[in-house]
Design goal:
Chain lengths: ~130, ~400
């Protein structure tokens, strides 16, 4: 079951996947609203925080202080396409899953935009971190 | 514990101190080599009354860990003559701009690697790890004192996150791809290395340590200590292979043969990281608790080192400061700063989040130095003992 589809300015569609909101075991859980999840997707799409046009990563941050978006304190959102032009997202954990680590270009963009500090960029790049409490 | 610190402004990817040379990788992926001895000599010449303390702190401090020094420090009053200068030095801030260090640069090289994940130097070879593989760069004698690196060459084509070099082996942690050991000092070292690989189903990053005869690792769910591990030839292993160890993979001719698995009685709740030292194994669990196991000799097993649960004194670090990463036997990096344990207690060396912490326990001259890379500077701290407590760091 999916929530209503929302369309970003670029025409890409976003659909919220219920398994990341209903406590399904083994699935990371959002701690933000569906609307905020869509805003993260739109932000990633707008700034082209992607490598291959399929995987998108996003972050909610204020002056190098990322905000938690997942129930465990995850702060990196990852969006994957599940059908043509439609993406769903979940809170990512770079330490546990290779694909949840944003590519270097995205990490550098976040650092240059002062969304993450140098030390946090380094820890994400080395996959030493999963949540804000690590 | 009394730290004497200096700091250098700049944004750095990584750093290493080896043989009188400071290796720094800058934000734009350039490797710089600085004549560390000359830099330190130069700045301490301007502070003559602290000359000896600073020289012993930053140039050569290996003797601080010797038995002779411990005897003098603990049993005589020799420390009294050093104490005022040591206190003054530890209260001062020795801060330098990058330009001041640049005057002592001896080499600068652009790296064609991705973001560096780890570096290490062993036996005059500099190793890099990045998302594309592992590289080596031989350090070639330039003059009586300095060695300069040759152009890095790729050793292994697997994304690498951690390196440790020991004896004739370079061990690489490659996350989901497994753990590799490259015999880099073999007779045919110019040919392709022959790695053997142990593959972990649920590999926890940075949680593997390989010794000469053991591997300790956290699988993400539990902690295993694999004892009496040897790399042997396939023929022998076929006779001795353990059914549980079907994951052993044969690459080249060498494989990994594990004869015994020891599991601690006090299992951690998920493993975040493991550090194995000479005498102890530190395991950080997912809840930020730190378990300490002692590698005890066992008479019934030909003096092999078994594992005994020792103490849980570090529990408070986890509960107070959140996640902990162990960087050496006594240096703990947390989200709140770097902590150092000595026999008198636990001390905050520096507050704030670190991009990276390095210690050099195996270095000939720098076994009391801790390098911390922060957002806009690096800090080098020498850990001096307090009076009557000389045996702080193992």
């Amino acid at each position: 079951m999916h929530y209503q589809i929302r369309v970003a300015k670029s025409g890409k569609k976003h659909e919220c996947n219920i398994v990341h909101r209903n406590g399904t075991p083994g699935k990371s859980q959002w701690s933000i609203s569906v609307g905020e999840e869509f805003e993260l997707f739109e932000l990633a799409d707008e700034h082209h925080w992607t490598g291959d046009g399929r995987n998108y990563w996003s972050i909610k941050s204020n002056r190098q202080k990322p905000q938690p978006i997942g129930t465990r304190g995850e702060f990196i959102a990852r969006f994957l396409p599940h059908r043509e032009d439609t993406w769903h997202g979940f809170p990512g954990c770079p330490r546990e899953r290779k694909g949840d680590r944003p590519i270097n270009r995205v990490l550098n963009a976040w650092y240059e935009a002062q969304m993450i500090s140098w030390s946090l960029r380094k820890k994400i790049a080395r996959r030493q971190i999963c949540t804000l409490y690590d | 514990m009394h730290p004497v610190r200096l700091s250098i402004e700049g944004v750095f990817e990584d750093g290493y101190l080896y043989g009188g040379v400071l290796y720094l990788i800058t934000q734009d992926q350039e490797l710089w080599l600085f004549d560390w001895d000359a830099f330190v000599e130069d700045f301490i010449s301007r502070i003559p009354h602290l000359r000896w303390i600073l020289k012993w702190s930053f140039l050569r401090n290996h003797f601080l860990s010797t038995e002779q020094f411990k005897d003098i420090w603990d049993t005589c009053d020799a420390w009294q003559s050093l104490w005022p200068a040591l206190q003054e030095a530890s209260e001062k801030q020795f801060a330098f701009a990058f330009d001041e260090l640049e005057l002592f640069a001896v080499c600068r090289m652009a790296l064609t690697t991705e973001l560096i994940n780890d570096i290490t130097i062993y036996n005059f070879v500099l190793y890099f790890a990045d998302e594309c593989g592992t590289y080596e760069s031989l350090l070639v004698q330039e003059n009586r004192r300095l060695r300069l690196p040759l152009k890095p060459e790729k050793l292994h084509d697997v994304p690498t996150f951690g390196l440790s070099a020991k004896y004739r082996l370079l061990n690489t942690s490659c996350a989901e791809d497994g753990l590799f050991s490259l015999s880099t000092f073999s007779e045919n070292r110019l040919e392709q290395p022959h790695p053997w690989r142990y593959h972990f189903e649920k590999f926890s990053l940075g949680s593997v340590w390989i010794g000469s005869d053991f591997i300790s690792y956290g699988s993400g769910e539990e902690f295993d200590y694999l004892m009496n591990v040897r790399s042997t030839y396939r023929k022998q292993v076929a006779e001795q292979a353990d059914e549980e160890r079907e994951a052993i993979e044969h690459i080249g001719e060498r494989v990994l043969n594990i004869r015994e698995i020891v599991r601690g009685r006090h299992q951690p709740k998920g493993v975040k990281s493991v550090f194995t030292g000479m005498y102890r194994v530190y395991v950080c669990d997912m809840e930020g608790q730190l378990l300490v196991y002692r590698r005890a000799r066992r008479k019934d097993k030909f003096l092999q080192k078994g594992l005994e649960f020792e103490r849980v004194v570090h529990d408070q670090i986890g509960t107070i400061y959140g996640g902990v990463t162990v960087h050496s036997m006594a240096i703990l990096d947390t989200g709140e700063g770097t902590f150092v344990e000595d026999e008198t207690g636990l001390y905050l060396l520096e507050g704030g989040s670190n991009a990276l912490v390095r210690s050099f326990p195996a270095a000939k001259w720098y076994d009391r130095l801790v390098l911390s890379i922060k957002d806009d500077h690096l800090s080098m701290a020498c850990l001096w003992p307090t009076p009557h407590s000389s045996n702080g760091l193992e």
